[in-house]
Amino acid sequence: MTYFALIILLVGIELLYFKIADTYNIIDKPNSRSSHTSITLRGGGIIFPIAISIAFLLGYVSWAVTLAVVLVAVVSFIDDIKPLSQLPRFISHVIAVGLVFYELHLFYEPLWLLPVVFVLLIGWVNAFNFMDGINGITVLYALAAIATFSFLPINKASLPLLITMGLSCLAFGIFNVRKKAKTFAGDVGSISMALFLGYFMIKTIIDSGQLGYILFFSVYGIDAIITIINRLLKKENIFQPHRSHLYQYLANEMGYSHILVAFIYAGFQLGINGLVIYMDANGDLTLLFIGGFLLLLTLIYLLVRNFVTRKMVLGNS
């Protein structure tokens, strides 16, 4: 009954936000870099930091994690309305990562570990944000991650928090997982969700002692890293909007449904997550397997990307 009331509340808050966004013209206008063609309400992902705030009030999550997520959400929301320079955004990310470190007691770990985790977490947050480009992809991928974390016995005590965040995804998904989305997550949604998922990934690895769980983010990670490398080789500004992720090629140039592509990404990641859990249960989730599997996934990705880009070239010739 509590969770039923919560989903109703979250949907109601989302509808209230739509009225506010419509009143104050908080919209996303399509441009040459966009994957959409019509004006859409921006910032519907504000429901994610609202959900974690509710979780805090219910005693499901600590003040440090809540503050970290809300901080990046507030700065990102301002950036959604009126673009900010990189400095305030970076400062908010640094403070948020510091709060995550505090929550997970990482400041007591060897000093060499801190910059490694810092770079990985900042990289993950930005990669997740970069991948937010078509209807449904952010929320479905987040749901796949949350469902996987919820399945692990090590996270049993965190189930109320995970369920709350999962319900916020469902509330947002009602209006986003559509052929014509009513709203987009915006930076406020993608960055706040990325930070939450990043925090939970680190927490799960620490609690379990199993580094292999990092494969839960492998689909996004490989797409983001290969795309960045490809853009650097072309001497492009990687901080500028673009349409060169594989999912963007599939949705924009190849003409596949946004929702279909989003489900493929989330479904493929969910399948990988199931394999990772199976391998771990059998004691086979070793560093050798992790490295070999990442290499295999990268090769598969490159083959698919090469196939798609060649079809695009042939289609334009």
UniProtKB/TrEMBL annotation:
GO terms for cellular component: plasma membrane. Its main location: membrane. It is a multi-pass membrane protein. GO terms for molecular function: metal ion binding; phosphotransferase activity, for other substituted phosphate groups. Mg(2+) binds at residues 129, 187. Its cofactor is Mg(2+). InterPro entries: Glycosyl_transferase_4. It is found in: Cell membrane. Keywords: Cell membrane, Magnesium, Membrane, Metal-binding, Transferase, Transmembrane, Transmembrane helix. The chain crosses the membrane at residues 45-78, 90-106, 112-130, 137-154, 160-177, 184-202, 214-233, 254-279, 285-304. One of its GO terms (biological process) is cell wall organization. This is UDP-N-acetylmuramyl pentapeptide phosphotransferase/UDP-N-acetylglucosamine-1-phosphate transferase. It comes from Flavobacterium sinopsychrotolerans. The lineage of its organism: Bacteria, Pseudomonadati, Bacteroidota, Flavobacteriia, Flavobacteriales.
